[in-house]
Amino acid sequence: MAGVRFGIAGCGRIARVHADEILALPQAELVAVNDIDPYALRDFAAYYNVKGYCDYEEMLEDQDLDVIIICTPSGLHAKMGVMAACSGRHVLVEKPLALTLADADMLVNTCEKAGVILAVVMQKRFCRFFQMLKSAVDKGSFGILSHAGATVRWNRDEAYYASNSWRGKKAEDGGVMMNQAIHIVDILLWLMGGVESVFAYTATRCRSIEAEDVGVAVLKFRSGALGVIEAASTVYPRNLEQTVAVFGEKGTVVVGGEKAERVMTWRFSGTEEDDRAVCLEEGMSCSGKSGHRAVLRDMVKAILTGGQPAVDGREGRKALETVLGIYRSAETGMPVSFR
Ligand SMILES: NC(=O)c1ccc[n+]([C@@H]2O[C@H](COP(=O)([O-])OP(=O)(O)OC[C@H]3O[C@@H](n4cnc5c(N)ncnc54)[C@H](O)[C@@H]3O)[C@@H](O)[C@H]2O)c1
Predict the structure, then answer these.
(1) For the chain, which terminus, N or C, has the lower number of CB atoms within 10 Å?
(2) C-alpha dist (Å) from residue 248 to 133, 137, 252, 320, 335
(3) Is 249's C-beta closer than 6 angstroms to any atom of ligand 1?
(4) pTM of the full predicted structure?
(5) Is the CB of 37 under 6 A from ligand 1?
(6) Which residue numbers in the chain have pLDDT < 50?
(7) Domains defined for the chain, CATH in brackets
(8) What pLDDT is attached to residue 53?
(9) Nearest atom of ligand 1 to the alpha carbon of 122
């Protein structure tokens, strides 16, 4: 195969990031797009000079496509991913993988049976400092891990939720935990390993939406380490911070900034000079579209080499399972244990 030919389902906000990044990749080509909104479809297809399909099944009949990127509202990810896999296409699905475990499993199993690659967009995993942090954890540089935290203190106002009918609905989107926090929930699990149990509260305090606009959760990891997640879309008057912090016997790392794009603290015993260098190093900032570019590059490489993407369906399922555990705990008022 000379290059990888992409189709995109859903021509909204995030689809443009994918389309721009496909154009920037030498071994990738954007061939076709699909949207049920004829105006969104027309504008998008014209801008990128690609084929436009109002009917998704019709796009799947197009023989010029190797992979479909699912950029539709979250409640549609599983069904549209399954259809793509059944047509023999590789699937790159925007986060979250699905909104229920049954849907996630259906998508994972269908892709495995069809022999196609399934990858989930978790672009934070490709940030250089998160990869360095992962390798510090894996090398044992922290000694005994005591605890970790993930915080999203952002603002999504009424206009944001009103901008598309699916936003803030439980069956189509979920709330701040499922939509905004899932990236750093994924990072937390990747760094700290499996979760044994979770206890959570969620609430809808300030926005007129069905799902939660604030949530807090405490976790116990299988290792015995503890975790805290705090997520809110209610923070006045604008985004404040997104933070991941890992604490151990011999190490402390805090990644922060508005979108977890900067190393704030990097301390390991006996390595002060290195530590300062890591925090100050140029190019360590991780923001903008670089994450999506890395996700697409990883997908292209997996397809061309027959390898595995960094975040496959089973990997992407883990954060979903934890967020659904948070929801179940908040609903029942009881801790939720994972098998
Ligand atoms: N990785 C990230 O950082 C990131 C960022 C933003 C959004 N997302 C995810 O991307 C997805 C889309 O988000 P968005 O902000 O682009 O939403 P959006 O509302 O801007 O775009 C969604 C598009 O899908 C179209 N659509 C709806 N139903 C359809 C159907 N049945 N068939 C074809 N098209 C359909 C809509 O008309 C719209 O154009 C969500 O799942 C969201 O969680 C991920």
Answers:
(1) C
(2) 12, 9, 6, 26, 25
(3) no
(4) 0.97
(5) yes
(6) none
(7) 4-122+291-310 (3.40.50.720), 124-286+320-337 (3.30.360.10)
(8) 98
(9) 1
